[in-house]
Amino acid sequence: MEIKQSPPNPSVTVVEVGPRDGLQNESEWVGTADKLRFIELLAAAGFRRIEAAAFVHPRWMPQMRDAGVLWPRLPARLGLAFSALVPNEKGMRDAVAAGVRHVAVVTAASETFNRRNLNAGTRETLDRIRAILAMARPEGIPVRGYISTSFTCPYEGTIPPDRVAELAENLLAQGCFEVAISDTLGVATAEDVSRVLEAVIPRAGVERLALHLHDTYGRALACVGRGLECGVRTFDASAGGLGGCPFAPGAPGNLATGRLLRFLEEQGMPTGISGDAVSAAADFIRKVLRH
Ligand code: MG
Questions:
Q1: Which of 102, 118, 148, 208 is the most exposed, fewest CB within 10 Å of its CB?
Q2: SS3 letters for 129-166?
Q3: Which parts of the chain sit beneath pLDDT 70?
Q4: For the whole model, what pTM was predicted?
């Protein structure tokens, strides 16, 4: 009898970032109960990872100012991890106090973007990340590192891929479990993805890379396709395509989760996440935001 070998596991991880990266950009206040409902609807869709809040000074992200009261009320679901963005030690302390067990940190590949967005040069953002990692380690808290403006910066233009590679290597060496190569402006083409990944993968490996794409020019799925070809298996998306970047003029939404799920399905890479449930979550939050 012929024994059929099962194909290699094509599994792809989709990280839902709508409740944090989507909502942070909305100037109109969304109440804690509505945020929770949005997150509950997303949790029901079957994600393994949802970025749910940020512990950031309210001056920078007023929409996230209820993170401390939101967090303890998040729905507990087996196999689902909620993460929070933390910019510094103070944010990390607040996050841990609220019960956060997964965090994300951010730097940018552009010195100017770091100064304008995070009020610190690249070196200083790496110092902050080192301090956060030192707090996370004894708590056993995994830390994801975002590299904003990995392709193009609104101030500096095209970013040299070697700079992204160096940062990715640095973040992983410091202890981040994953690095999200992020196209803050949504300007990347599939060729740009190849160019950046060709520089990053030899130094950082591919297993711990994620792609965080925006759909500004409708090219995000082409970029996902190229990422898949290069071996990337983790992609960020935001329900309803919510969220640009408040500090990146002219940047509209993140790649919409529904679009990504349909694309992955077409590629024969099911995620186990319910597109219908994601639509329900996106419809709900759109009504709240009156989009
Ligand atoms: Mg984003």
A1: 208
A2: HHHHHHHHHHHCCCEEEEEECCCEECCCEECCHHHHHH
A3: 1-10, 244-252
A4: 0.94
